[in-house]
Amino acid sequence: MGMPDIASKIFMKDSEVFADLFNFVIHDGKQEITEKMLYDKDSTALLILPTKEETVADNEGSEKVKSKQKDKGVQKYRDVFKELIIKKDSSAEYIFVGEENEKEITYSIVPTVMTYDSLAYMEQIREIANEHRKSKEKAEGGEFLRGFHKEDKLKPVITVVVYWGTKEWDAATSLHELFDIKDKHYLKYVPNYNITLLKPMDIEEDDFSKFHTELGPVLKLVKHSENKNSIETCINSDLVYKDMSPQAVRLINAVTGANFKIRDGEERIDMSKGFEEIKEEYTAEGRAEGRAEGRAEGKVEGMISALSGLVEKGLITLAQAANEANMSETEFERNAKMQKA
Questions:
Q1: Which of 7, 41, 44, 1 is CA-nearest to residue 256?
Q2: Dihedral sign from CA coordinates of 146, 147, 151, 157
Q3: Rounded CA gap, 172 and 108, in Å?
Q4: Which pLDDT belongs to residue 251?
Q5: Residue 318: pLDDT over 60
Q6: What torsion do the CA atoms of 31, 36, 42, 43 make, to the nearest 10 degrees?
Q7: Which helix (H) or strand (E) holds 337?
Q8: What distance in Å separates the CA atoms of residue 113 and residue 11, rounded to the nearest whole number?
Q9: Dist CA 21 CA 99 (whole Å)
Q10: At 11, is the secondary structure helix, strand, or coil?
Q11: What is the mean pLDDT of residues 189-201?
Q12: Predicted model pTM
């Protein structure tokens, strides 16, 4: 399990953040779900598949057991799984809600989520059947064999997949998209299955304000992570980045490749200062690299090349680069272009 997986699970397991995600996806940011309505569930999905005894007839016509295979078990691990209890007057609604994290485009995500949800339904049936057996209720036929009675009901399962990447998602989001069949008539008899996918790159700038936890700022930085200037603008234009949790910053580092420092014992982090530290490190590295190359070659080309690279990345300005190289801006630009020619 890589750092993006670990960091995203730790961050999303927080019930306040988890509620924020589902409020955004389901209620367009309205605060309908609170952390007090969520209860952690075991994220391990288990299912036992019993196998039947195989029988054959002997020479005398009597049936005998030929072989008996062991039961097969299916075990899957969700990222985060909780129970949502919505109390209304004297009644309550019960819903299971799950969240899956994907750093890379996953082309098998639809069957994967479908399996998780199916196992969640089968687990409910197993628990209901156990309760019937404990109470020794009378049952016949299918109710007796399966332990699930006519009046029994299941709790719905909702799963949201969060894609933490920046590449355009080109994987299927429905089961029917995975079928290579020309005669679509047959698909009418194949139930479709759609996943709910949240992609930071598709969130409109104004919609980030609909989040009420650090989830919004984290997703916003992921969206802008391909452009250093854009990241700097985000961090410096929003006070929220001056007071971030280590969990949020670790997730940002893990999914964007950034290197914001998290010091031991630090409970809150000012990312605007962290960004300046990163810029200073890059600048210092560039200066050292340039000087080393300059000394080795006896020329200033090494320094100009390194400084020019920092300017292109948006980490220093043209004026800062020219000053470091003891040149005018015009002279620095001319030398940089000559090296690229």
A1: 7
A2: negative
A3: 8
A4: 95
A5: yes
A6: 20
A7: helix 329-340
A8: 20
A9: 9
A10: helix
A11: 97
A12: 0.74
Q: Could you tell me where the DSSP H helices lie in 186-315?
A: 215-223, 228-237, 246-256, 271-297, 301-312
Q: Within 13 A of 114's CA, how many CA atoms are on the CB side?
A: 13
Strands, E, within the chain: which ranges?
38-40, 44-49, 54-57, 63-67, 72-77, 80-88, 91-102, 157-163, 196-198
Question: Is pLDDT above 80 for 39?
Answer: yes
Spatial contact of 215 and 252, defined as CB atoms under 8 Å apart: no
In this prediction, what percent of the chain has a pLDDT beyond 90? 51
Q: How far apart are CA 326 and CA 329, in angstroms?
A: 9
Nearby residues of 188 by Cβ (< 8 Å), 6 or more positions away: none
Q: What is the mean pLDDT of residues 3-9?
A: 90
Which two three-digit tokens encode residue 43? 């994220």
The single-letter code of the amino acid at 259 is N
Query: CA nearest 322: which of 293, 298, 295, 290?
Result: 290
**Distance separating alpha carbons of residues 326 and 294, to the nearest angstrom:** 14
Two tokens, residue 33: 């779900």
Which is nearest to 143 in space by CA: 134, 152, 155? 152
Which residues, in sequence order, are bridge partners of residue 321? none
Provide the Cα torsion 327, 331, 337, 340; round to 10°. -40
Reported as a single tens digit per residue, the pLDDT across 153-164 is 999 999 999 999
What token pair was written down for 37? Answer: 């309505």
User: Span 331-337, mean pLDDT?
Assistant: 84
Q: Which long-range contacts (CB under 8 A, 24 or more apart) does 47-54 make?
A: 47/73, 47/74, 47/75, 47/119, 47/122, 47/123, 48/72, 48/73, 48/74, 49/73, 49/74
What residue has token string 């809600």? Answer: 97
- In whole numbers, what is the pLDDT of the chain averaged over residues? 85
